UniProtKB/TrEMBL annotation:
This is Uncharacterized protein. TPR repeats lie at residues 170-203, 288-321, 330-363, 372-405, 414-447, 456-489. Residues 1-27 are annotated as: Disordered. InterPro entries: TPR-like_helical_dom_sf (IPR011990), TPR_rpt (IPR019734). Keywords: Repeat, TPR repeat. Pfam families: TPR_10, TPR_12, TPR_16, TPR_7.
Length: 553
């Protein structure tokens, strides 16, 4: 192979140039024609021919440049004797200038080409040991002849192999994430899912699963970022993938909801619903799911009648698509029963819960985890009715099923322990309540970390127990710890922040003889948050806070 650097040095390192001398019988015009013809044929030569020709062109260039004025002077002198028109002399001078520029461009083009070939040669050398040795040698030999086709083919082969390796690595990382998630190692699952997304950010399946996992682990900022990225990618193929775009937008809406952005979440869900209802096959499970999510959101916003209507629409579609005994119907019935409970229609709530429980038992058996949620909700209704023994029984059954099906260290076990702790606290069983709360707190911290919003929820419950036992300083400490965590985890305007502020205000006003101005500050900040979060003035949290402020302010 030609030594590129040596060839370049030969071209650039020359010092003296030969003087211009015409061959016998050669006119100045013939010299110009000769140089011009050489330039025009330059690009058709091989690399060795380029080098040799450029050396000759370089010499001719110098000779042409240094002799240009002499040529013109001679032509003017001889032209006067031969009666050559001045216009003809100017034409010859213009043509000579063009030849000079062609020579300059030719040398510049050659140097650029030479630099590119050097880079290709070094890149080929870097493939030593990674590709077939004979193939590499053939590519290098072809490159010496100014033939880059074999090098290009070899680079394409390497790129394809590396792309396949990246695809396999991303798939492996994704599968490891699924395994870790199944083992409740949420931190490990997130690491693996992130790796898959990093390797193949264009793979929407990886983005979707990673965003769902981030939401599940309550890493809401990251979940939102991933979901927004997913929406942008799916939107590029709209309307061909309209269903996929709707799923991505629904995921983003669910994350807004988790962050307490109820209006933004509702607006996005409603947009998704409009699209789904405009499609030819509008009565699908996707539409029913969107209606269910909207119903849950309206419930959270205190729009109970609207929520109930939305759930009824979802139930009608499910009955048409799935039949009367599908477990999915029980989920919607469970949601409707929750609305009846919040409207104070306790008998209707318990009746609807029983319908849901019956469908679940028939379809899934007596120990399925989904029964636990219905049992838990029934316990809440009994608790609100003051039937604490019945409530405790439902919560205990919920805990047994959850532990047996999901293991004693599952997050759902922590939720069951918290609810059981609350009903024990309301019966004055403070020691048992604290025991349940502390065990739930341990599980939550182990799985989600010490600064998670769920940790703050349990700290609030512990604070209430301390307050009811008269341990006010301990209660205040727990409330304040919960407040710090909640603001960081959910944002300063989340409704849970408002509830914690109200708890602190009541504690200070009722038990710690705090100045009324300081207490009012807590209440007013809570009021601002609740008004922003709940459109309905009749929402229980707004009604309760109004009564509290009337009492202490």
């Amino acid at each position: 192979m030609m030594p590129f650097q040596k060839a370049q040095q030969n071209l650039l390192g020359r010092g003296n140039r030969e003087a211009l001398s015409k061959t016998p019988g050669q006119t100045e015009e013939q010299l110009v024609d000769h140089v011009s013809s050489a330039v025009e044929n330059f690009q058709s030569f091989t690399l060795e021919q380029h080098v040799a020709e450029l050396q000759q062109l370089d010499r001719n260039l110098y000779r042409a440049i240094t002799a240009q004025q002499r040529v013109l002077d001679t032509m003017r002198t001889q032209g006067a004797k031969l009666d050559v028109p001045n216009g003809k002399l100017e034409d010859l001078r213009t043509e000579l200038n063009l030849v000079q520029q062609k020579l300059v461009n030719a040398e510049k083009s050659y140097q650029e080409r030479l630099g590119d070939l050097q880079k290709i040669y070094l890149a080929l050398q870097a493939l030593t040991g990674r590709v077939n040795a004979d193939t590499l040698q053939h590519a290098q030999s072809a490159l010496a002849r100014n033939d880059t086709s074999l090098a290009s083919a070899l680079f394409a082969q390497v790129q394809e192999a590396e792309d396949e390796a990246i695809e396999r690595a991303a798939q492996a990382a994704f599968e490891r994430g699924i395994v870790a998630e199944g083992e409740l190692d949420y931190s490990g699952a997130m690491d693996h899912y992130r790796r898959a997304v990093t390797l193949q950010p264009q793979e929407t399946g990886y983005l979707f699963r990673t965003a769902v996992m981030a939401r599940k682990a309550r890493h809401y900022d990251e979940a939102q970022q991933l979901a927004e990225q997913l929406v942008q990618q799916e939107a590029q193929n709209y309307p061909q993938n309209v269903r996929a775009l709707c799923r991505a937008q629904a995921l983003l809406a669910s994350i807004y909801k988790r962050q307490g952005e109820h209006k933004q979440s509702a607006a996005l869900y409603e947009r998704v619903l409009l699209v789904e209802q405009s499609l030819p096959d509008q009565e699908t499970m996707e539409t029913a799911t969107t209606l269910s999510k909207l119903g849950e959101l309206y419930d959270d916003m205190g729009l109970y009648e609207r929520a109930l209507t939305t759930f009824e629409q979802a139930l009608a579609i499910k009955r048409k698509v799935l039949g009367e005994q599908n477990p999915s119907l029980a989920d919607t019935l469970n949601n409707m029963a929750t609305i009846y409970d919040e409207l104070g229609r306790y008998s209707k709530a318990l009746e609807t819960y029983e319908q849901a429980l019956l469908i679940k038992r028939r379809a899934l058996g007596d120990a399925h985890p989904s029964l636990a949620m219905i049992l838990n909700n029934m316990g809440i209704v009994y608790q609100e009715l003051g039937k604490y023994r019945e409530a405790e029984e439902k919560f205990e059954e919920n805990l047994r099923i959850t532990e047996s099906q999901l293991g004693v260290d599952h997050l759902s076990v922590s939720d069951a322990l918290n609810n059981l702790g609350i009903v024990c606290q309301e019966q004055g069983k403070y020691a048992v309540a604290l025991e349940k709360f502390e065990e739930g707190l341990r599980i939550t911290r182990n799985i989600l970390g010490p600064d998670h919003a769920a940790v703050a929820d349990t700290l609030n419950n512990i604070g209430i127990v301390y307050q009811e036992q008269g341990e006010y300083e301990a209660a205040k400490e727990k409330y304040e710890e919960a407040l710090v965590i909640t603001k960081v985890a959910l944002g300063p305007d989340h409704p849970t922040v408002g509830m914690t502020l109200e708890n602190i205000g009541v504690l200070l006003a009722r038990h710690m003889h705090c100045p009324s101005t300081a207490c009012r500050n807590y209440f007013r900040e809570a009021e601002r948050i609740f008004k922003q979060a709940y459109q309905n003035p009749a929402h229980p949290n707004r009604v309760k806070l109004a009564a509290t402020m009337e009492e202490f302010c």
